Amino acid sequence: MTPRLRVGVVGHRGYAGLPGVLAALLDLAPRLGVSLAFEDELYEIAEDGERLVEPEALDLLLTLGGDGTLLRGARYLGALDIPILGVNLGRLGFLTSCGGDEFEDALTRWANGEFTAEQRMTLDARARSVDGEPRGRWRCLNDVVLHKGGFARVVRFGVHVDGEPLGAYGADGVVICTPTGSTGYSLSAGGPVVVPTVESIMVTPVSPHTLAMRPLVVPPDAEVAVRAEDGPEGLLVTVDGQVGTTFRAGETLIVRRADVPVRIVRFPGTSFFERLRHKLGWGGLSERDGVVTPV
Predict the structure, then answer these.
(1) pLDDT tens digits for range 84-93
(2) What is the pTM of this model?
(3) DSSP-assigned letters across all residues of 19-41
(4) CATH no., domain 123-257
(5) pLDDT at 180 over 50
(6) Would you list the domain boundaries of the chain?
(7) Fold match between domain 5-120+261-288 and domain 123-257
(8) Which of 19, 154, 171, 274 is deepest in the core (most CB within 10 A)?
(9) Catalytic residue numbers?
(10) Count H helices, E strands: the chain?
């Protein structure tokens, strides 16, 4: 069968199950009419396939690992409108499309068109120096976090929404996230869980030093600006938990909705609420014990 679909593959070599998945993938691809292109680290250990050099030519990006690998894959694609099928080889894998023992069925269903590509809002984050000069720019699927380094002290952050002062946050940091990121760092900091299709931006303080400061949900077209008013040297901006830059008092972080969403492959019979129940334990003890009261 002549390959008609191009699949790019990125993965985390730290997962023990990766070699077995690669072997099964190389065996399955010809039967599905799929050609495989591997990122450099996987190309070194794959026994067949091509080197991934033209992401714009892909029909699908397959990520082998966990949520971090999927986020890295989204960053690799940039603004390209290519769906991502995430295979979870780790423990949680909240963002991924299937488990490691399900990927052959998942790839087959994708090749047969039995899937939906769920659009996920992304953020555009920019850092500006004290003089207003650009210092860095990133696109993120989960969140952008402005936080202190290893200093045990509260930092004051000035937060504005669409140019209007929201207040002064005395906190360890500020998380600005998408609905996708609402189940990540923002959740652990006390932020709300937001259904991914309800587009919005969440602003969540980390360990705020006042009971009056609570997470805030703003419209998806809002612009959020955060400036460190004081604090130690060594503040950090972290994007999707993986990349970022140093930050210092007087500099500004500006976050708004990005122009292009990320598309994540989903299959019939799965839902966001199912993932909440089974992966995050939503529903309490009865759900843990397999008992769900019918409506």
Answers:
(1) 999 999 777 8
(2) 0.88
(3) HHHHHHHHHHHHHHTEEEEE-HH
(4) 2.60.200.30
(5) yes
(6) 5-120+261-288, 123-257
(7) no
(8) 171
(9) 67
(10) 7, 20
